[in-house]
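User: I'm new to structure prediction. If I give you an amino acid sequence, what do you actually give back? Let's try with this one:
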Amino acid sequence: MADAPLLELTRGSLVESVHRGSIAVVDANGKLLHSHGDPQMVAFLRSSAKPFQALPFVEHGGVKHFGLTPRELALACASHEGSALHLETVLGMQKKIGIQETQLQCGVHMPGDAAMFDSLVRSSAQPGPNLNNCSGKHTAMLAYAKMRDWPLDSYLELDHPIQQDILTTFAEMCGIEREEIEIGVDGCSAPNFAVPLFNAALGLARLADPRGLPDARGSACREITAAMTAHSEMISGPGEFDCELMKAGAGKIVCKRGAEGYQAIGLLAGVLGPDSPGIGITFKVSDGDGARMSHEVSTRARPAVALETLRQLGALSEAQLQALSGFGPARPIVNHRGLVTGEMCPAFTLE
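Assistant: Good question. You get back a string of structure tokens that encode the predicted 3D arrangement of the chain. For your 351 residues, that looks like this:
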């Protein structure tokens, strides 16, 4: 199977551009409910893996050990925008843990938050690792290493006990053997994982509905999803799709974007009906879906495809869809004068 059209963009009467990709919708029992394109497409989760990367730390009592708040746990699962709130939160985490910003090995980049971006530019200041969108994840990894008395300076090496624990946990959640997982290096230098969309969706479904998991892991999954949905402003930033979808989902939808057009969504048990199990949704936009320009990120295909998928599943009410209509699924395309030049519209029906 191959990828298939996901989103069309018109100009005048012609289709000018098409985003292609694949979608998998899987329940917590491991049943493929719906798909489009190739549900067995192997793709890197990129930052969509962050809740799984935090899971062993939470499962082994790290949140309680360091007295972290749900807001701080949410930041550990985040691709934050580097706002003042995000910076304040990661600094608070590091103070509780007893580590310094200089110990983070995530590298540096300019923040996505407009106010912080402009402040740095005007002051000619350089961003530090804490403004990296992955600083919460790296802080939690260092916390886990410190709690277990493992080396701190090599925490990103694949053979480090932290990364081995993460890899094992991820494989178990996704129902796949460790040896079948393709390993790569993420933008923040941490190991990252590529698996079929089906398996990643299964992992999201179990994260959202962990009733069949061992008690400690199930409790950790619930703690993570509760933190992410209660503090969605930490996961990305106000106005960004992940944040706004979780706000509209009112605690029932967990959402985490990844780079290069990856999106992961978990629906808690009961969203699709009183007895419905948790549902995992993963999709990959094959062309990567745009790139960061200045402090703005292209949000063209992923949010629209996500909303259309949720609409077809019946997971969002009309009121929720209306609240999110600025992201799609269909919306007009306007030029720099505000003239309507075409339309963006979904081009798929789930099988």
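You can read the tokens as a compact description of the fold. Here is one thing that stands out. The longest helix spans residues 215-230.
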